[in-house]
Specification:
By secondary structure, the chain is α/β, with parallel strands linked by helices. The protein has 13 helices and 5 strands.
Length: about 375
């Protein structure tokens, strides 16, 4: 025996508990004879099982160290067949039990691949690791690692929302679209549907729209803006439907003789659509101005200035639409100019105020 050296533990780890699952062998197993018996049982149940070879390799490593004069003991521990947390918990308990029993100077860890070597941090918390021996069976050692990486990526593609929406969502949307097109006898549109879906997915990911929406959803005002946008879109859509129906009823005899047909239609469309557009814009600006005013934010002044400007520009735009319908109609130039002037003054006042405030903040920060 090598003097001045403590006992060495040769430890074989079966993290997925093939010993218990296949051969009904309980762990921890301590000693050369008990370890060999466990390896034989597992090999008889499944001759292709790599863990059986690991057990025999652990016994051989112990015999080699013993022949060199070291005080060696061999042990086999196992985890759980499906639950990673339970596997690590069992391994920790079994290593702790063995370490308390034989008090080794250090451990020589024997494993058959990267899966079992995940227990290294657990073992290191309880005792020092002197060496790690990886057992490579007849097939190439990289095959198991490649398989593990492949399984990891497949799990990420299925269970990780960041990847599953592309790995499963986009192909699923393509298949669903093809199924619906086939159901309605529109197979000729299959390629167009595939190109549109893939193109939309590429734009969505390529321009970072997903990250933008993810960050925006964390903002309190996001849902408020989304609600006002939907409400405004509905108002504008209703206006377009209404205007389209009325414009279709306009016939040439209804148009003044000195006005072109297209000019009259544009003027009539703007006149009828303008209230809907104004209401949609005012809804957005009014809601946001109120929100930021409640929060006492400077942004309330910006939306309030925009709200006043939009209100002041309504009358001039309406006059412009009426003028397009009938150029001979008298226009209140003075009133129109007053409204436009007030709109410009409102925007200019807000812009100057913001510039002055920004300048003072920078000056204060610089000093």
């Amino acid at each position: 025996m090598v003097e001045g050296k403590g006992r060495i533990l040769v430890l074989c780890v079966d993290r997925d508990d093939d010993l218990g699952f296949k051969a009904n062998v309980k762990t921890p197993i301590l000693g050369r004879r008990a370890s060999l018996e466990a390896g034989v049982k597992l090999a008889l149940v499944d001759p292709e099982e790599a863990d059986a070879n690991s057990i025999f390799a652990a016994v051989k490593t112990a015999d080699t160290l013993r022949s060199k004069g070291y005080d060696v003991e061999v042990a086999v521990i196992s985890g759980h067949h499906t639950d990673s947390f339970e596997a690590d918990r069992r391994i920790r308990n079994q290593v702790s039990e063995i370490v308390r029993s034989i008090r080794p100077e250090g451990v020589v860890l024997v494993s058959d691949g990267a899966e079992d070597e995940r227990v290294i941090p657990i073992v290191q918390q309880l005792t020092s690791i002197l060496s790690v021996e990886r057992i490579v069976i007849r097939h190439s050692g990289s095959i198991e690692e490649s398989y593990e990486v492949l399984v990891r990526y497949l799990k990420a593609a299925v269970y990780d929302p960041r990847h599953s929406k592309y790995a499963l969502g986009v192909p699923g949307l393509v298949l669903l679209s093809l199924g619906l097109l086939s159901l309605f006898g529109l197979q000729a549109l299959a390629w167009q549907a595939i190109i549109i879906i893939l193109g939309a997915a590429m734009i969505y990911r390529g321009f970072g729209i997903d990250e933008f929406l993810s960050k925006a959803r964390r903002s309190t005002v996001f849902h408020l803006k989304l609600f006002t946008l939907i409400a405004s879109s509905i108002i504008v859509l209703a206006g377009l439907v209404y205007v389209n129906g009325l414009v279709a009823t306009i016939k040439p005899p209804m148009i003044p003789p000195n006005v072109g047909y297209e000019q009259y239609l544009v003027g009539a469309a703007v006149e009828m659509l303008l209230p809907y557009l104004w209401l949609a814009i005012e809804l957005n600006l009014g809601v946001l101005a109120t929100y930021y005013a409640i929060r006492r934010s400077f942004k309330a002044a910006r939306y309030l200035a925009s709200l006043i400007t939009a209100s002041l520009l309504y009358y001039p735009l309406l006059e412009l639409a009426l003028f397009m319908k009938d150029p001979s109609r008298s226009i209140s130039i003075i009133l129109t100019a007053v409204f436009v002037g007030l709109a410009i003054v409102t925007l200019a006042t807000y812009s100057i105020y913001r510039l002055v405030k920004t300048s003072k903040r920078e000056k204060h920060g610089g000093s």
